[in-house]
Specification:
The protein is of the alpha+beta class. It is 18% helix and 36% strand.
Length: 300
C-alpha cells in the first residue's frame, strides 16, 4: 500500500521522519575520516545483504539487497524493502571496487528491533487498533569473524573494527606528545526502521490563511526530499514506497495569493517517481485564480 499524506486546510501531533515516507527502512554507517583515506573508500561500492541466522548462511533474499556508493563524507547507506521476520537479524556489508570487482573490506552486524515506549519508559506503546507493539528503529552492533583454533569453527562476536591512529597526549600538563592509539573504523551509525505505512494529517484553520504558508513549505520539502532520495538511493531511481498527497480545499491552500511553488513541475515529474496527487476543489476557477491559465491547463 502507498504511504498517504493527507494535507488539508489543528496542529501536527508528533515529529516524523520525512525520509521514511519513501524509504521506511534505512541503516547507515559512517567511516572514520582517517580510515576512509587509509583504504581509499570514497567512491567504492557498498553491497548489503541480510541473513536470518548468526552464521550468515540463511540469506533473506532480494528484498534485503542494496548497492550504493560510499559517499565522500564517509556514509555507506542501506535502504531495503523487506521486513525482518524476527526481532534479530544479521547484516553483511561488502566494500567492493566497482571497476575491478575486487573485495576490499567486509563488515558484519547484528540488528535488533526496538519498540515504541512511553515517555518515562515504563511500558510499551501499542497500536490502538491492532493492540500490537509498534516497531520503531533498532540497535546495530558490529560483529567480527573469529575462528576457533581447536575446532576450526567460525563464530561472529561483538567487536569493533579498529585501526592505528596517532593522538596528542599531555595537554593538561603541557607535555604534548604523540602516542599511537586504536580508533574505531566506524565512527557513527543511524537507523530508521518502521514496518507500517504512515498517514500524516496537516491541518490549518481555513480562516487563518497566514498559517497555510507552513503547509506550502512542508509540501515542497516532502516532495523534494522524496525525489532527491529516489535519484541517489536506488538504481531505478524510484522510491521503495509511493506517497499519495490528498490536497483537500486546494483553493484555500495559498499564502498572499501564491499557491504551491512549481506545482505544475511537481505534478509532471512526481508521477514518474510515484508521488501521486489528488486535488480537491470546489470549482476549477479556484485553480485558475491562484496558478494562472497556463499552469491550470498543464495541471488539468
Amino acid at each position: 500500500d502507498p504511504t498517504i499524506s493527507t494535507l488539508t486546510s489543528g496542529t501536527p501531533s508528533q515529529n516524523i521522519d520525512l525520509g521514511s515516507l519513501s524509504f521506511p527502512r534505512r541503516i547507515g554507517i559512517r567511516f572514520h575520516p582517517i580510515y576512509m583515506k587509509m583504504y581509499h573508500l570514497a567512491g567504492l561500492q557498498s553491497v548489503w545483504s541480510a541473513y536470518a541466522d548468526e552464521t550468515f548462511e540463511q540469506n533473506l533474499g532480494k528484498d534485503f539487497e542494496h548497492r550504493s556508493l560510499v559517499r565522500r563524507e564517509g556514509w555507506a547507506n542501506y535502504a531495503f524493502k523487506g521486513i525482518f521476520p524476527n526481532d534479530i537479524a544479521y547484516i553483511k556489508l561488502e566494500i567492493v571496487n566497482p571497476q575491478t570487482k575486487m573485495l576490499v573490506k567486509t563488515f558484519y552486524f547484528k540488528f535488533q528491533k526496538r519498540y515504541s515506549t512511553s515517555l518515562d519508559g515504563s511500558h510499551y506503546v501499542t497500536c490502538p487498533v491492532l493492540g500490537e507493539k509498534i516497531v520503531k528503529n533498532g540497535i546495530l552492533t558490529e560483529l567480527r569473524r573469529f575462528t576457533n583454533k581447536n575446532t576450526g569453527q567460525t563464530v561472529y562476536k561483538p567487536a569493533n573494527t579498529t585501526f592505528k591512529d596517532m593522538r596528542l597526549r599531555g595537554i593538561a600538563d603541557d607535555n604534548l606528545r604523540k602516542e599511537e592509539a586504536k580508533s574505531n573504523a566506524i565512527s557513527r551509525t543511524k537507523i530508521g526502521y518502521v514496518e507500517k505505512p504512515k498517514m500524516v494529517y496537516l491541518i490549518t484553520p481555513p480562516n487563518l490563511t497566514k498559517y497555510a504558508k507552513l503547509l506550502l513549505i512542508l509540501i515542497q520539502q516532502l516532495v523534494n526530499l522524496s525525489l532527491g532520495e529516489s535519484y541517489i538511493t536506488k538504481e531505478n531511481q524510484k522510491p521503495l514506497y509511493k506517497t499519495r498527497y490528498m490536497l483537500d480545499e486546494l483553493g484555500n491552500l495559498q499564502s498572499d495569493g501564491q499557491g504551491i511553488e512549481d506545482f505544475d513541475t511537481m505534478l509532471s515529474i512526481g508521477l514518474g517517481q510515484d508521488q501521486q496527487f489528488t486535488l480537491v476543489l470546489q470549482t476549477l476557477q479556484q485553480l485558475r485564480s491562484i496558478y494562472g491559465t497556463d499552469i491550470d491547463k498543464i495541471v488539468q
